[in-house]
Amino acid sequence: MATLGHTFPFYAGPKPTFPMDTTLASIIMIFLTALATFIVILPGIRGKMRLFWLLRVVTSLFIGAAILGTPVQQLNE
């Protein structure tokens, strides 16, 4: 086959690219794990404080994920 201008059949073809950015996927998984852990702990908080803690933690997790998920390009690069 190689003499006719073809490639050898045992050479691997081009590797397909992964369709998603793995750093973004890891950031999402870390923050979802932290949220799931907090939801498991949430029933131990009494009274109205449960709602306030839920809003506080979910808001801070969202802000942290938004900051880490969209990095800003630096001016000197």
List segments where confidence is low: pLDDT < 50 over at least 5 consecutive residues: none
Total helical elements: 2
Distance between the termini: 49 Å
Strand portion: under 5%
List how many beta strands DSSP finds.
Answer: 0
H/E series: HH
Structural class: mainly alpha
> Which percent range fits the helix content?
40-55%
Mean pLDDT: 80
Q: How would a crystallographer describe the biggest sheet?
A: none
Which shape, going by the Cα principal axes?
elongated
- What is the rounded Rg? 24 Å
Transmembrane segments: 24-45, 52-72
Keywords: Glycoprotein, Membrane, Transmembrane, Transmembrane helix
InterPro entries: Dual_oxidase_maturation_fac
Protein name: DUOXA1 isoform 3
Mind explaining what this structure looks like?
Belongs to the DUOXA family. By secondary structure, the protein is mostly helical. The chain has a domain of 51 residues. It is 53% helix and 0% strand. Helix 1 packs antiparallel against helix 2. The N and C termini lie far apart (49 Å).
